[in-house]
Specification:
Strand order of the largest sheet: 1-2
Number of strands: 4
Bound molecules: zinc ion
Radius of gyration: 30 Å
Helix content: 40-55%
Number of helices: 3
CATH class of the largest domain: Mainly Alpha
Distance between the termini: 68 Å
CATH architecture of the largest domain: Orthogonal Bundle
Oligomer: single chain
Order of helices and strands: HHEEHEE
């Protein structure tokens, strides 16, 4: 049992997963802070400070204990989700741009006789030994 557990823990992907979960949790805080502290205030200026979360419609119950359909909260959560999704999309795009592979300059050409890939500066083909 202990040996099995040790094997499980020492597998590399368990540690990778743990790191991923911890980084993901910390990254989630950054994203939600970005949305709630930076983006939402800017949007509220654009929309004139409209607070959707207060919107509701009474569908039953009494005046003292109304049964409300709080569709405003639903709309607000949907907008929050779209903002978070957009922010993550932008971040992924930025990271992908930074990871763009450097395209190596061409150092080879094709031998006109045997069609093998040879050095760009070669004067004789190493495959078919013909002069180029
Ligand atoms: Zn050749």
């Amino acid at each position: 049992m202990f040996k099995e557990f040790k094997t499980f823990i020492l597998r590399g992907n368990v540690m990778d997963l743990a790191v991923g979960v911890i980084i993901g949790g910390a990254f989630g805080k950054i994203v939600s802070s970005l949305v709630s502290d930076i983006i939402t205030p800017v949007i509220s200026i654009v929309t004139g400070g409209v607070d959707l979360s207060g919107l509701n419609v009474k569908i039953g119950g009494t005046d003292a204990a109304p049964v409300l359909l709080t569709y405003g909260k639903f709309i607000q959560n949907t907008i929050d989700f779209l903002i978070v999704a957009l922010v993550i999309f932008m971040m992924v795009k930025i990271v992908n741009t930074l990871h763009k592979p450097v395209i190596a300059p061409t150092t080879t050409k094709e031998c006109p006789r045997c069609k093998m890939s040879i050095s760009k500066d070669a004067t004789r083909c190493p495959h078919c030994t013909s002069d180029i």
